[in-house]
## 1
Amino acid sequence: MDNYLPGGLRFFVYSLGCPKNSVDTEVILGSIVDDICNVTLVQGPAEADVLLVNTCGFIESAVSESIERILELIEKKREGQILVVTGCMVERYGDELVKELPEVDLFYGARAPQNFKEVFKGFLQRRYNGNATLRDTTPGRHLTLGCSSRLLSTPWWRAFVKIAEGCSNHCTYCLIPAIRGQAVSRSKQDIIDEVNELVGLGTREVTLVAQDVTAYEDNGNLLYDLLRDLLAYTDISWIRLMYTYPGSIDERILRLMAESKRICKYLDIPIQHASDRILKSMGRKYDSQVLERQLELIQDMLPSIGLRTTLMVGFPGETDDDFLILQRFIEKWRFHHLGCFIYSDEEGSAASKLYNKVAPEMASKRRAALMELQKRISADINASFVNKTLDVLIEGKSTETDLLLTGRSQFQGPEVDGVIYINKGMAEYGGIMPVKITESHCYDLIGEIV
Ligand code: SF4
């Protein structure tokens, strides 16, 4: 019996950044349950044995938030507690962090969450034998091969499923390829097994995530093959796609989406911009013509699809004319959901070496103008749902009032889009119910179960 291994550990967790990172947090915790001891998630740092911050290191503001959370836990840390920092910021800043944050007991990178158990075990043994700090970033690539255990952090009826790691697109403003490596896809069978396990736990909706899900390739199997086989070999109710790369969504995928009720009529397609000059400077592998053809194809084959996009304003060299092109593009194509970020000059990115940086005030003004435009478009699209009946995944009581249930339709992605408030009718959490929309707002809808 390994005396240094505890019977159980209480974890307090900050999981920062994107859904891919929250899957990594779940895999890290799952690996401990698998191999070391039982894990209980606690609501407050004071009750915990281990304080874990899974960081995001994508852009400066994310790095600042990660540092803030770590410093908060350093301040609250009690004698005997273990403070663990993992994720992209460790991958990006490695040794600097060890020097800057001596209060942190264990640092671990972002590339092999399922192997955390080995490093943690080693740490517990060294600690038991009186050793101090350890930093570990497992070299090379160990994608989540085989169905690594996960301690699900999402409600049981929904889960993110990471289908690939890393990215090979090398957009000039992005450090992800440097932080997470080149794109590597999980095996198709591995993903099918994971989804079947999730269905066994009662999961109704899986959202497939990666840096670029359309780059999925496993021994000649592409995203189309994965979707076809998830429909054939699992009973999952809803399959949702996020992070598709513009220009890479082909007719086969769209036909499969059109023919199957189980693939959400929803696509997250981050276009970033619409000015050819800026798209080229961003290193995006498409221009506005490709974008237009892609959106035409999508709307021809799936007229009522819910489209989400992400934009970036303030990219070096962006002029008023470039911005006008972007505004007109958004007015024409009317995305249901839209997020807009301001360019961030990231040390080490190719774009940080570009001239003609845009003044922050101008970038903020452009972002505000786009969000104002989108508010009108979103309100308009939402108004078109009134008197329609939608299938809604019931997600529990509204945080605003117990009188309301909330849920999402296939047009609304988890954690990023609006929701549907249900003010009439009862339903079980995790159920998919017909809801008649009675009222619409900019981002949310109101309805009753019919
Ligand atoms: S597609 Fe571009 S922005 Fe997205 S993760 Fe890859 S390199 Fe970064």
Note: The domain at 158-383 is CATH 3.80.30.20 (pyruvate-formate lyase- activating enzyme).
## 2
Amino acid sequence: MPAEQIAVTETLEREQSPNVPEGLEKMMRRQGYHFVGRHSATKICNYTSESMKNGESCYKHRFYGIRSWRCIQATTAIGCNLACSFCWRIIPEEEGFKWNEMNAGGKWDEPEKIVEGLISEHKRIITGYKGNEKVDMRRWEESNDPAHVALSLTGEPLFYPKMNQLLRAFHDRGISTFLVTNGTMVNALKALTVMPTQLYVSVQAPNREIYGKVTRAKNLAATWDNFMEFLGIFSRMNTRRTFRLTLVENLNMTDVGGYAHLIEVGKPHYVEVKGFVYVGGARNEKRGLSYEQMPRENSILEFAKEIAEKTGYSVADYHASSNVALLCADQNAARSRIIRFEK
Ligand code: SF4
């Protein structure tokens, strides 16, 4: 890695260790998280690795054309204001960390520093792949020139107050942006003037009652009302709008009519109907979930078909290893789902 990039990363690390409790930082580092500055992090995605080693790419490659080997999985905020039971991430409170996640950043880092830091850290992470004889070297070289960032790693990225500048900084480098939000940050969405390449909202439940059970929101009434207001604003966002449904048997895989109503309000171009995976934080017994609640392929496809019938959307595709079905709003969305990327 060129000296100046090492300098950037080390300066960032030296100046600002992440603003998370030390014990949590250690836990996350053991899980492969690499911190950048006070409140950002990256972790190599399994599909970035597999797509270099054995050619297996993620479902976003199949659905939208993302080159998994050129993707950075990252976040600009470690903290989150929800505690969804199916979430893979560590929920600090469950591990006994008293930590005000809502004020995770304290002083927020500058967008350019975050972007440079994430790119440098990504390159540092993949350096080790060069010596692996299974690795496709053409893809490894391309991976050193990232073309996509998925702001979906952990936490709520819209906590970061300089999202417009950050998105612009990525786009100025020809890097596409997939931004995944939990749908509660209404003012942050109103303030979003630079559009991500694709904007995701996680739709955790079909109605308020189940939303409370899944998200474990501290103030359910206010959080649900916020979510509904968020969907209204989301429906007018001038970019590729996507709903992500993560379904758990005997929890939120029910009330198709409720999901159809939320789709009517949010007007997404794409709906991803995805089976929950019993891994990471989701295995914490405090979450009350079990392996048996992971939906099977046919039940995901069946549920997707039911939503399509209720909404007029069409079932456009399915990716088996991620157990996710894709619904498209109309012919236009279906025709343009594969993105023409700058690089
Ligand atoms: S888009 Fe998501 S799943 Fe695909 S490589 Fe990037 S981080 Fe991984």
Note: Confidence is low (pLDDT under 50) at residues 1-15.
## 3
Amino acid sequence: MNSPVAWALVFHIIGFVFWVGGLLVTTTVLALHTQQESPEARLPLEHLEVKLLRGMAHPGAAITVLAGLTVVWIQPGYIHQHWLQAKLFLVAILIALDLVAYTRAKAFHKGEIKLERRECMILHGAISLVFLGILILVLIKPF
Ligand code: HEM
């Protein structure tokens, strides 16, 4: 693998570890947060969720997408590969799940909505499944 692609993949991998890792931890903390009554217990969890989304998941998302597009820019032939086309479809779903988690967390923090533990765990499961699908497509390349 030529070094510019290899370097781009180094950042690609650290990016999605921050992105997906940040989202999975945030949805777990949110699920716990929905069970807390007292403001003393809720406020630190709110701060943690904001830090995880803004300081880890979203910078990770930007690095992942920029590095991934860099690999395709260096080797445009990738775009014709069906596994990458299917992968980009799953990446679009991951972005949508990220936006749902972010907007629901913000509305919950403002007291505009009552967030259920069940919803947080469904988001958590959906993010895990999409991540599994991406890994299968890029490492197994089934088509
Ligand atoms: C715009 C978004 C993305 C683009 C254009 C993109 C593109 C690519 C390309 C071209 C490769 C090299 C594949 C190879 O040579 O085998 C790659 C590798 C990879 N991508 Fe992405 N990707 C994107 C997003 C993601 C996301 C969101 C994840 C995970 C959540 C991800 C996970 C991986 C993994 C695990 C590899 C394999 C790295 C390796 O070679 O070991 N990618 N990506």
Note: DSSP finds four helices and no strands in the chain.
## 4
Amino acid sequence: MQAVLSDIYLFLKSGHVIFMVFWMAGLFMLPRQCIYMLDHAPGSPGEAKWAVRMGKLRKIILTPSLAIVWVLGLSMAYGGEWFTAGWLHAKLTLVLAMTGYHGWLVGQTKKMARGERPLSEKTLRMIGEVPGLLLILIVLLVYLKPF
Ligand code: HEM
């Protein structure tokens, strides 16, 4: 199994980076969709329209990309024998934070679709920066492998 994974390593890495970009794109878009929904009153047709758009973003882009990034990342970690590497431990900690952020934000969008308004526009703009900050640290770790 490990020999097969190392044979197809560059395909795994290509897919990993492609779906990482899709995942990040979705995480950048979702807080902005929340901000646009804030312009519409609870129960209004405008709210319903944004709820449908968020649902599609979640089901078609976000959740499948998260799953594929994890599967391909762990496959590379196994095929490349990286599980004892400090940089991967640090990276996985940041990726778990990114995954937690994903789950929390999806939960907030479901509340908003039910007519709740748990987050202000200011908060949404601030938390919208979180994936970008994590992305910078994750990419530095994987290319520099400092430890
Ligand atoms: C979900 C859990 C993840 C695991 C287990 C994982 C693991 C790995 C491993 C083992 C490699 C190959 C390293 C090498 O060959 O030098 C890799 C490459 C990479 N990972 Fe991840 N990763 C994960 C998530 C992410 C995320 C969320 C990002 C960005 C936000 C990311 C960005 C990258 C990049 C850019 C590369 C390519 C590095 C290169 O070209 O050598 N990974 N990842």
Note: The pocket of protoporphyrin IX containing FE is lined by residues 13, 16-17, 20, 24, 69-70, 73-74, 76-77, 80, 82, 88, 92, 95, 98, 135, 138-139, 142 (CB under 6 Å).
